[in-house]
Amino acid sequence: MPAVRTVEPMMLGKLDWSAIPFDQPIPLIAGAVVLVGILGVLAWVVLRGHLPYLWDEWITSVDHKRIGVMYILLASVMLLRGGSDAIMMRIQQAVAYQSQGYLPPEHYNQIFSAHGTIMIFFVAMPFVIGLMNLVVPLQLGVRDVAFPTLNSVGFWLTATGALLVNISLVVGEFARTGWLAFPPLSELSYSPGVGVDYYAWSLQISGVGTLVAGINLVTTVLKLRTRGMNYLRMPMFCWTTLASNLLIVAAFPILTATLAMLLLDRYLGFHFFTNEAGGNVMMFMNLIWAWGHPEVYILVLPAFGIFSEVVSTFSGKALFGYRSMVLATMAICIISFMVWLHHFFTMGAGPDVNAIFGIASMIIAVPTGVKIYNWLFTMYGGRIRFATPMLWAVGFMVTFIIGGLTGVLVAVPPADFMLHNSMFLVAHFHNVIIGGVLFGAFAGFEYWFPKAFGFRLDERWGKMAFWFTFLGFYVTFLPLYVAGMLGMTRRLQHYDVAAWRPWMLVAAVGMAVLTIGVICQITQLVVSIRNREALRDRTGDPWDGRSLEWATSSPPPVFNFAFSPDVRGEDAYWDMKALARKQSLEHEGPEYHDIEMPRNSPTGFVCAFFASIMGFALIWHIWWMVILGGIGAFATFVVFAWRDHDEYVIPAAEVARIDGINLEERRSLVSMAGGV
Amino acid sequence: MNLLDPQGPVAVANSTILVDSVFIMLAIVVPTIVAILAFAFWFRASNSKARFQPGFVYSGRVEMVVWAIPALTVILLGGVAWIGSHQLDPAAPVPGTGSPVRIQAVSLDWKWLFIYPDQRIATVNALTVPAGAELNFQLTSSSVMNTFFIPQLGSMIYTMNGMVTKLNLRADNEGKLQGLSAHFSGDGFPDMMFDVNVISPLAFPDWVTETAKSGAVLNEDSYRKLMQQGVEKGRPAWRLEDPRLFDLIATQHIPPGPGPELLSDAGRPHSGAHDAR
User: Fold this and answer.
1) Cβ of A362 and B78 within 8 Å?
2) Is B70's Cβ below 8 Å from some Cβ in A?
3) Are the CB atoms for B139 and B104 separated by under 8 Å?
4) DSSP code string of A143-204
5) Chain B within 8 Å of A26 (Cβ-Cβ)?
6) Is some CB atom of chain B closer than 8 A to the CB atom of A398?
7) For B63, how many CA atoms within 13 A lie in the half-sphere containing its CB?
8) What is the least distance, in Å, from the CA of A134 to any CA of chain B?
9) Are A421 and B147 in contact (CB under 8 A)?
10) Given CB atoms, is A531 within the 8 Å cutoff of chain B?
11) What is the mean pLDDT of residues A368-373?
12) A333 vs A135, A339, B181, CA distance in Å?
């Protein structure tokens, strides 16, 4: 048998026909459907002649708004993939009582590993990074991010990671180790297949993308604010972006180094984390969580920022206790780096260590609690409009408090000794990640969609999506809390304990409700696109907003602002609006200037193309292809570095024309508001 | 396996802390949730009775209260955590009646081996202990990480190859409990459930004598066979040949378990494994 399979070992490394799961219908059919879908879209694009548009306006675009939209699109597509995994897991645990269910262990184990990996790295991360990309330069009143081409590289490398994860569905396998691939299970001796390699290389490549996105956004916030936008006038979302990206810059190198060590073990026989020769699995645990815990805050801090914007806008008030919020944000940023050990209290570190890390973890609840109260008092005395984003915000506040409660609970070491790795824990982190990050992402999506595309989303379907998701969340995850209290641990492919069964059935029902929520969300998008003329946002300020992104048109022109706004206080646009209402914006036609903008560049796309080849080749040990991909990616970088022209000029007349249209709309808004 | 139905002092203490912590937090969480819903409802735009106060954006008093409430709660809970961590350290003694029973647990792929070095017996997937006695566990793993957990007896702990962790428990009531592995360890992971038979201290010596009559002998050879990957549906028992077997495993004199047999079948999971390295 081995002789047959080692035909042409030099050409394609470990890759041969046995990598395709001909005997497993589920991944094969799923893969075929996805492939047909992709080919269909590609054929449509090419046949309808959309390719040049796609290439010029999107793929090679270095416009932060376009890149932000592409990040969110990637996240949405991967949300469907990760959601399908979730549905399959919930069904498996509902049926696998005293039976094997319908998923054999080697398949089920891939699904929960892929679910976690995808949801964190390819849904939550690109969603929040996309929103930050889209909004932060607008809120800061600037024309682009600090490094526009690097921004594009970051996005496309993230997409490469997502691509590799999806290829593993049909070519080979994905990791069967859980989403953090703990050694020694993830070492070559216990996971000899390519699954862990798919996992590690996709995260290495997308991790580079995330790191450059982080560097880019930190630099943007620190260096590119408009006139008068000093730190304590920045909108809250900019602050949380700064905190979150500082964490990215500090934490992602740890992930890269940790995975690099695991890969050295697997590829070159090193012994960082093996059982033998002095390897130490506890080191991996520490390192991966030294990245992993800050990661949680990387995700949730931007969500806090979104809710700050949403609650303040829809309450018609400035954010309550702004400086206190800034302090709380930065406190979370720093403390979140000092609590990683609470992920393994049960490793036997000793009482002092456990207690110190337990208390440090609880301390994070203080600034987080402060944030909740400040949102509460922002609503107090407000005039609250319950548009869809505000529903998500209130739903978040209620849900997140419950997640916070259970979080502080598992930070108490003796309680964690019973709840660690249980379904209770699963319920807890879904409670904070769905209730915090995902609700935040949806709120931001609904809130800034009109800014990105120039029309609002349908409110009726949006509200239905909220209610189904909100209820579905509780019906799915409250039973998991109960199952955890009944001693059920996570990642069970089957079980024989009768007491767990009913709760798994209820959770499956909840999953169905959640699915309806997702369908409503998709319907909302379709309905809104169809009715886009009726939903058109002509003023650029559909929500009566308070920050600078609402001061330009929807969608904003490529240069964002014809004039760099001059900021004189917090809630910059609100003050400007108040001022404008007085002066009714009737000053003489302003003098426009030429604007220089960065040129489009295929660097990101081409770089990611070669990175994909290199990643795939590394996974399958196809060394010639690794070298090819490496040289290609490096050559792309060299070509970019030696470029002659990196900017183009938008003439003043064109700026005047574009701005004139927007100004006209705004004047009519102001005169209308003034008349009321 | 209900955590709120503890059967030993460690579990009683754990679950008491668990429940108390929840109530301490509920004391502020419930009013906060009520306030959120109430404010959101009362200050709705359509309520003309609500007073619009757009200028209410800072209040030193409110700030002090909102920092103080979570801070005070955390100070209280931090005290609980500090004391609890020390009193309930897995390695802390749990005095019981009679002489303590030493048990050496080894997580294998995918079953639990329980060695009673003093009684010179060993069992798989069935742990039999006398009620009321202190149980001194030493734990290690033959290959990958696992977590030893008997929900109704309390505190879980990791097992790791080449390392020994310690855990002390006590079971107060006779009866049948269940234990499991709480750390994913591969394909056979769900089958790592084990029985915990808590019997009367008087019956325990009889059980030991009965088990020691077993014809099967556990020594290095039979252990190496046992540590091959696979699940164990039965409840086999052995006479222990060498009471130092656990030390040989923990010190890696017996090398770690081999992992999957390469090329054991033509299935996808092993594809490409043959020319790894």
Assistant:
1) yes
2) yes
3) yes
4) SS-S-HHHHHHHHHHHHHHHHHHHHTTTSS---SSTTTT-TTTTSTTT--SSHHHHHHHHHH
5) no
6) yes
7) 15
8) 28
9) yes
10) no
11) 92
12) 21, 12, 34
What 8-state DSSP symbol labels residue B200? -
CB A144 within 8 A of CB A597: yes
Question: Does the distance separating the beta carbons of A384 and B165 come in below 8 Å?
Answer: no
Q: Is pLDDT above 50 for A538?
A: yes
Q: ipTM value of the model? A: 0.90
Select from B23, B65, B85 the residue whose CB has the most chain A CBs within 10 Å, as the one to mutate to test that interface.
B85
Residue indicated by tokens 């696998």: A96
Query: What does the pLDDT read at residue A88?
Result: 93
Helices (runs of H) and strands (runs of E) counted in chain B: 5, 12
B44 at interface of A, judged by CB pairs closer than 8 A: yes
Burial A280-297 (b: 16+ CB within 10 A, else e): bbbebbbbbbbbbbbbbb
Distance, in Å, from the CA atom of B18 to the CA atom of B14, rounded to the nearest integer, reads 6
> Which of A321, A401, A499 is facing B32, going by the closest CB pair?
A401
- A460-499 per-position pLDDT tens digit: 999 999 999 999 999 999 999 999 999 999 999 999 999 9
Residue A304: in which H helix or E strand, if any? helix A281-315
- pLDDT over 60 at A9, yes or no: no
Which chain A residue shows the shortest CA-CA distance from B66? A370
Please, which pLDDT band fits residue A670 given cuts at 50, 70 and 90?
low
Indicate if the pLDDT at residue A48 is higher than 90: no
Whether the Cβ atoms of residue B37 and residue A393 lie closer than 8 Å to each other: no
What is the H or E stretch that residue B140 is in?
strand B134-141
List of chain B residues whose C-beta atoms are within 8 Å of the C-beta of residue A110: none
* Three state DSSP letters for A193-244: CCHHHHHHHHHHHHHHHHHHHHHHHHHHHHHCCCCCCCHHHCCHHHHHHHHH
Residues of B (105-164) whose Cβ lies below 8 Å from A: 143-145, 147, 149, 151-152, 154-158, 160-163
Beta bridge partners of B167: B137
- Cα torsion A340, A343, A345, A349 to 10°: value is -50
CA atoms of B74 and B77, how far apart (whole Å): 5
Residue B67 near chain A (CB below 8 Å): yes
- The domain spans of chain A are 14-279
Instruction: Tell me the nearest-neighbour CA distance from A72 into chain B, angstroms.
Output: 29
Please give the pLDDT value at position B127: 94
Determine which of B268, B275, B277 to mutate to test the interface with A (most A C-beta atoms within 10 Å).
B268
Residue at token pair 């050879």: B221
- The neighbouring-strand residues paired with B123 are B114, B237
- In 3-state terms chain A splits into helix, strand, coil percentages (rounded to 5) of 70, 0, 25
CATH class of A14-279: mainly alpha
Per-position pLDDT tens, chain B of length 277 = 888 899 999 999 999 999 988 998 898 899 999 999 999 999 998 888 888 888 888 888 988 998 998 899 889 888 888 998 898 999 999 998 888 999 999 999 999 999 999 999 999 999 999 999 999 999 999 999 999 999 999 999 999 999 999 999 999 999 999 999 999 999 999 999 999 999 999 999 999 999 988 788 888 889 998 998 888 888 899 998 889 999 999 999 898 988 887 544 433 444 333 333 3
Q: How would DSSP label each residue in B221-244? A: HHHHHHTSS----S--EEEES-TT
Q: Give me the total of CB pairs closer than 8 Å, taking one residue from chain A and one from chain B.
A: 349
- Tokens linked to A506: 């209820």
Beta-carbon contacts of residue A3 (< 8 Å; ≥ 6 apart): none
Quick one: angle between helices A388-410 and A423-432, nearest 10?
140
pLDDT at A568: 78
C-alpha distances in Å from residue B23, one per residue of A262, A371, A432, B65, B100: 43, 22, 20, 21, 35
- Asked if B52's CB is within 8 angstroms of A321's CB, the reply is no
